[in-house]
Input
Amino acid sequence: MAKSYDIAELERWDARIREKAEAFGLSCYTQEFELCDHFQMLSLMAYSGMPSHYPHWSCGKAYERQKTLYDHGVAGLPYELVINTDPCLAYLMRDNSLALQVLTIAHVYGHNDFFKNNFSFRHLRADLTVATFKNHADRVRDYIEDPSIGLRKVEEILDAAHALSQQCRRNPAIRRRDRAEQRQQALRQAEPPPDPYRAIHRRPVYEPPQLDRVPLEPEENLLLFIRDHAPQLADWEKDLLTIAHEEASYFLPQMETKIMNEGWASYWHRTILNSLELPAELHLEFLVRHNQVVRPIAGEINPYHLGLKLWDDIERRCDRPTPAEIDEFGAPDCGGREMMFRVREVDRDVSFLRRFLTETLMRELDLFEYEPKNGKLVISKVSSEDDWRAVKNTLLANVGLGSVPVIRIIDADFGGARALMLRHEHDDRELLVEYAEKTLRHLYRLWGRKVVLETRLGGDDVNLSFDGDKFATAKQT
Amino acid sequence: MTTVFRSYSSSEALHSDRSSGDRQRHREKVREAIRDNVADLVAEQSIIGRSRDAVIKVPIRGIKEYRFVFGRNAAGVGQGQGDSKPGQVVGQAPKDGTAPGAAGDRPGVDYYETDITLDELIELMFEDLELPNLERKALRESIAQRATKRKGYRRVGVQVHLDKKRTAKARIRRRVATGGAPAESAAPEAADARFPFHADDLRYRRRSPDIDYESNAVVLCIMDTSGSMDTMKKYLARSFFFLLYQFVRVRYMQVEVVFIAHDATAREVSEDAFYHKGESGGTMISSGYAKALEIIEERYHPSLWNVYAFHCSDGDNFDNDNAEALKLARQLCDVCNLFGYGEIRPDGRHWHSDSMLKLFKSLDADNFQALRLESKSDVWKSLKSFLSKERLAN
Output
């Protein structure tokens, strides 16, 4: 099909969409669109949309995988790719029809607004993102080209760093105590609780806290801790850990807001396009595409669908609450849109779902919980009166970083032998031992001494350990 | 708010293959993975007797990126179509045991299937194997590699060997010699028009044959074909020799191979008969060794030849032949660079009274190696241990 539009036409549509977006109150970064073909799109996807990214074989793998899926028609390519930068960068597929481009442009403004305003992204310097990634890429390339280091060594460290990079602080909005404050806290906790009958009670035994312990409190940032405490890492190795950590922390907020973000963008592309009074043929195609994107997918969770449903429900509950809702929650204190704008600023997927996914909505969506049983996935609970809370909790446990096990460093001098002790914060979900073993090997590469992971398997507390020689599973006594 | 549009530029798109380096590195890793799994592949596939360009499907588990993940017992949440009931089956649990988790954030199960030809597979397998202890022997030397190398220039030749730089220089030289202005001073196109190339300017690279010689070598394959070699044992022995033969063919251009089949008596057979002939009769291992010694004596004198002998048997020898077999094995060790004995024990009965392994324990020679083959996967392991470069180091 010959392309029936040119850049000038896209610019005209963009101007109209932008005008609408501003009128609706979206507040965006400067937007930059770039047209690309499917090869470029595949490349960009392999590098998470970054114009510049350090080389690593996993990106090659991502490319091959995506291309194989695309070539065999298993998976299509996204209509757009938008990254959280200031100015906000978005890539549009040049082969898309005009209706699709218009939809996509409106969708991108939704993401843009979300990136700029949601609290999860506050701590990132969006204006420096592209430069930071370029800088990382340059540093890694320098190490690869350094004759005393070379590709293999860099790869080994990066592989290890990637294995651990998702193990980091989850909520940047919670302030982290520094060492002095941690000390104070430990001292405070060791104090016996105030006792009004001190005079007649036996004086409680004061056990002084171990203040020389490292870390004082369980540490979530595995890579940074290792960087700062591993004895024999070279400077370039430490730098690679920093790079891997920074990259991971850049992408974490996006994982944490996937449902909200896609729902928000879908809500706004629908709202904006409906307000544009599109010609009939464009409008029909828009409806078709829109429904493709936000359709429910049986057996899975489509973040576009779930997100949009929730945003619609928030708006409805504020604008047109049912009498039952007014009885239960009281009359809404603001209009639907105002509420939505508030929510898009202060929530992320976990809190968003916890606050706004109601029993009614869960039943309407027919959410269920499934469990693996004899090689099959079997529904264990549906959103019934008794079980909907359980289903909801399972959902909450699986969104965003909930699907990543919480693992913290609790002791850097375990057994007095500088072994690294980690604890898996067990929540009824077991670790996959094969993966844990390989990851511990990576961890050992970085720490250089024995690593021990405390977890629970089959109801028993066990220690998984790797000492450079062999992997061991030992029951705790 | 403002917007910038950047249009598509096809020339930029053509040059934007930035993932090529990373893809190549990933493929290297996949190749390494194939190599590490060769033993399994050899065990899984019936590659014996297949033509060398037969295509084999090789399943490769993707190069995994390990991290801490939840395992089998983790529950997930999905959306139904309005009629979900507890107990309904909604899908297959992932095979590698990773948690089902929420949609979209889970790395997919990576499974590639690559087609490679038997030839490529064999090349991969034998990349770092060689005939150990290859010595320089007198007299005839076999050609190991035929190639050509550069050796000067000449004025006649075929077009592909044309040396453009020298040809151009020759033309300049001729122009200067004929008194014409140097090329720089005139407009180039005008100069070209006035001073074309001449047949005398043409210079060709000259190539001369470059032959690598390697010492003579012969590989003796001795296989027990007695009645006690049942289908499984036969299969293991033939797999072993098939791989050995492929190895010799891939790595050495002119190594000779001799096939000896024995039961109570031994005879030299053709390759085809060696792989496909049935079995019968009792076992006299000494007969096979005697035949081998006879062939060595007649055709492959150890002063001129590197001799490698490999024997596969189930070790079920006539008791009264054992002394003779041991004696001849000793003689074989004296004349061979390497004498390998593979005892085939698919039943895994280690206490077996008739084991030749026990007998050969007394054979105290550096160039003797005895192994036990119990299953398909041992075939490759044993071959590797016979032929690996490190064998001699330890």
In short: Strands of chain A lie at 31-36, 80-83, 88-93, 367-373, 376-382, 407-414, 419-424, 451-457, 460-466, 471-475.
